Amino acid sequence: MATKSEARRASLLDALRSADAPVSGGQLANTLNVSRQIIVQDIALLREAGANIVATTKGYVLADTAQTSAQNATQTMTQNAAEQPAMRLDEPARTFKLHHEVEQTRDELQTIIALGGRVHNVSISHRAYGRITAPLEIADQADIERFIHDIESGKSSPLSTATSGYHYHLVSAPSDEALESIGRALADKGFLAPLLPHEQEG
Question: Which of this chain's residues are annotated to bind Ni(2+) (predicted)?
Fold first, then answer.
């Protein structure tokens, strides 16, 4: 027979499984009539037991919910990118690994664009679903504002919410020197994330 704690954790999983959007710790606490600290502890225990619960800026989701969100974001960004010119093959390009809060997305993109860069896509490396990539084709401030509007209006959500803010951008620029400047500027703002050994090998 399940204990009270086990029954509560089962209910917590059911709540996440049935939700069509991230569920905050406060919402879960109210639903299950416990403190937020208990929810945090239950989440940790469920993760140890193998539940793939992802923490986003808006709350908790199961990995399959995160995947659905990523697919929706990919569809929206694909539609936007289809209206943009394709990447110029004669320009040097580089993939940057980045990490920041959702609220810093505009600053990150503006930093790249201000130095002559163009952001062609965004990708994440999800532990359950592998590499997920979505086109962006952001080349100017208008593109940035459209992308931010889609996020803030709920039309889209950053892929990086499924990987705790870690993501990659493929960026092109008129010269290698411009790409170096972009990398330095991103590092100065704390956005550039260190590559893991297997990423450096790639």
Answer: 100, 108, 167, 169
